[in-house]
Design goal:
351 residues, alpha/beta, six-stranded mixed beta sheet, binds pyridoxal-5'-phosphate
Length: 351
């Protein structure tokens, strides 16, 4: 692995990057749950990326995104998400650390209560982000409201830039090439941990939303020449076009790293849409059971919107025998447990 990635490692080092997190994140075996499930279950703790208590996958992306923003002389950054977006909150925190003014356009998928502001939205307010809440209009879909938020954000960015305050536009979830490169680097970090432990990972499970994490992992896996199967559990409805988008993003990451390698959506990507229902930020019993199980066996917390659904997928694969007993299975914990303190309708039956 070392010789394969030496070039890539050098290339990561020349890209502009802000040091925001604490890496490598811990990687270890979950003994209690392994015994219960009959597989060797490991966890990659990206809920511990730092820089604050809440961590999560976005920090890996934001290191490169804000590095790029600084290199381009931006003093403002705008991004998007739902009102309880982990990405939006960690973008605000990262901007604050870098001295960049954060602006958010947040779609009210679950309308917030002004008198009882919770979880990530509360943190956004504490950090005093410039906040724009975009309500979903009657007859409008979530996607249409999001598209409006992108237009409003782009207009605000153009206005600031014209006034002499260059504003960096970060797509939802940080799912750009610059963001995903952070996850390719994360995959190399993970391979180093496997090497050090003398382990081969048969499967990785993780939650996928905007696809930036999935693209970065796929690019990193390619760079390492790994045959680990990555199962990306979706947190909302997706179709084949999503895989094309992720393939494109992964290949642009490889291109940025000057690699001739290519990710092929049919061979290298595997998404499972079987665990998100009824929808984004809408709980289901399998995710609730996954949250309770991990908390009660290992004292660990996952969330109802992302990681709970991904872990429910992992449990189903193991219990149904889709994964052979004794396999080495890694759950890549992408953070997000602030959702446990969000609006009641997001939570589900947790106890
Ligand atoms: C906790 C958590 N897990 C997973 C994801 C999915 O990551 P991505 O948007 O890169 O697909 C997100 C994205 O918002 C998240 O907040």
């Amino acid at each position: 692995m070392e010789h394969v990635t030496r070039e890539a490692r050098k290339l990561f080092e020349v890209l502009p990057r802000e040091q925001l997190g604490f890496f490598p994140t811990p990687f270890y075996r979950l003994d209690n749950l392994s015994a219960e499930l009959g597989v060797n279950l490991y966890i990659k703790r990206d809920d511990f990326t730092g820089m604050n208590l809440f961590g999560g996958n976005k920090i890996r992306k934001l290191e490169f995104l804000l590095g790029d923003a600084r290199a381009k002389g931006c003093d403002h950054a705008v991004t998007y998400g739902a009102t309880q977006s982990n990405h939006a909150m960690e973008t605000v925190a990262s901007c604050r650390k870098c001295g960049i003014k954060p602006i958010l356009y947040l779609t009210a998928v679950v309308p917030p209560d002004d008198k009882d502001v919770r979880a990530n939205l509360l943190l956004d307010k504490i950090m005093d982000a410039e906040l724009h809440i975009v309500d979903i209009r009657p007859g409008e879909t979530e996607e249409e409201a999001e598209a409006r938020s992108f237009e409003m954000g782009a207009a605000r960015a153009a206005e600031l830039t014209a006034a002499g305050h260059p504003c960096y536009d970060i797509p939802m979830g940080g799912a750009s090439v610059m963001g995903s490169v952070g996850f390719a680097r994360g995959y190399l970090e993970f391979e180093d941990q496997l090497d050090a432990a003398g382990l081969h990972a048969d499967y990785i499970f993780h939650a996928t939303g905007t696809g930036g994490t999935m693209a970065g992992l796929a690019a990193g896996r390619k760079l390492c020449g790994s045959d680990t199967k990555i199962i990306s559990v979706t947190v909302s409805r997706k179709d084949e076009s999503y895989l094309h988008k992720v393939e494109d993003l992964a290949n642009n990451v490889l291109k940025l790293l000057n690699s001739p390698l290519k990710v092929d959506w049919q061979k290298d990507l595997c998404m499972d849409t079987g665990y998100y229902a009824p929808g984004y930020e809408q709980p289901n019993e399998a995710a609730s059971e996954a949250i309770r199980l991990l908390a009660r066996t290992e004292g660990l917390f996952i969330d109802p919107v992302y990681t709970g659904k991904a872990f429910a997928g992992l449990l189903d694969y193991v219990r149904s025998g889709k994964i052979p007993a004794g396999s080495n299975v890694v759950f890549w914990h992408t953070g997000g447990a602030t959702a446990l303190f969000a609006e009641q309708s997001i939570l589900g039956e947790l106890y």
